[in-house]
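Worked problem 6 (solution included).
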Amino acid sequence: MMEHPTNSNDTEDARRRIADLLDARGEWFCGVLDHGRRGHRASAPVALRKGEWEVSTSNASLLFSAWSELGTRLWRVTGWEWTGEKLLLEATRRMGAERATLELVPRASASAALMALTAARLAAAERLSKLSRAMVGAGTQVERMGLSTGARRGEPGRYARIVLQTRGGGRVAVTGPVADLRRHEVDSFLASALLWSFRIGDRKTNSHPTPLWLIVTHATASAVGERLTLLREALRRDIALYEVDEARENLAPASTPELRDLLRADTARFKRPARVVVSGLAERIVALDPEAVDVVRAGHGETLRFRGLAFARVRRVGDGEHLWFGVDGARRRRLLDESSWPQLLKLIEELSEHRRADARDERHALYKNAPEAWLESLLRRDITRLDPGLIISPLHAQFRTSQTDAPSGARPIDLLALRRDGRLVVIELKATEDITLPLQGADYWRRVETHRRAGGIARTNLFGDAMIADEPPLVYLVAPTLRFHRAFDTLAHAVSPDIEMYRFDINEDWRAGVRVMRRVCANQIAPDPASGVF
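Solution. The predicted structure is:
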């Protein structure tokens, strides 16, 4: 159970016990689980040797300092727990602007756990190999078997990598998850599988491509099948989808619908997003810095953002409006009243100082957190910076095509816009590399096109009285030039040409103003095999 020191005696006792634990084991791995706006993000563990950490007290506060990739970091520890296998420290930095859980694992324990995890995943890969060999037929041999590259150096991958040799001399590439795969991770799995299959194919002899088998569970088979439908026909012909029949302990073919059938599929009735009615309390806050603060609708009220970073929420409780403020990751949010008004003004002052294009400290949490939301906030104010043909308003941000999107793990579309010629435009923004970007954009296109064909978007007057063209949406994939993943062109070319997809390269210093440096059609021209990106 987590212990929280409440006085100087508790603090000193905790310091002594933690120091004894650390000193008793000479080497540790220290990982940081950052509790930020977009959920929990884990950093790569750093190896620490004796002398590279210090536990101390100051003014009844428990402090922990240790070496990291960015230099020495000092944390204020608010809670701690020794589980018998690892030491957990609840900690904050920068006056509460950063909140995280530090996880320290003894080096010997970490190595043993890693070996056990690797063995378990290899055993799962062996099971997939056995099932696929039985499916191919007698005489099939394993040419090679292993795991995909892990997320961190030394970690086992999450996908099996199997190449089978058939009796007739042919080859079959087989891959499937050997760890839990959730629906929102399907794009990552498919992107990894496609790139692996391209690498093992024989490009020099131009021989027939190696068939690719994807083996998944029943829970994710439909989602993977939908993504396969969005690929080029020539590529789809060489991909087979199977799901594991746990009862019979064999593989069963899973269906992959045709694109025309997928777009005609029954969908939940399209509902127009509720109009954002800005409350008087929110208007009062926006007036403090109208160029930086905007309001977006939340589940039960409004969220106020400073250049994309949420810092306050307004909720109607009974007959009154109430506002809680504090950035995500802060230990707690405060209710706004007359006594806390100065603290809100101080927070906005800090945001104004650190969350600006010319901020002096670009490593400050208020600067670096939620970069895509910052980019979105700039484009919401003037979407014509991206494309002069786009209508400025209405422009729908964080757009969900269905009420079931959130429970299923599906992410909202960053921006849904309308061109002056009536074409809908799906806009996906990235500020960092993301290998799934082309596949993600294709899936968003599918969701919007399904509702367009069903008439839901026109029926609900999503864009007012503007005419919606009887044409599929365009897809704009936007990122700074150096933040497109190196496999972007390869994966974009795998997407069906029926999906009109464009790559927008913007300037690296976009925080000072968005400029389009290059715009190209992303999925019409084949990538250069000599690039080595396959």
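Discussion: The two ends are 48 Å apart (CA to CA).
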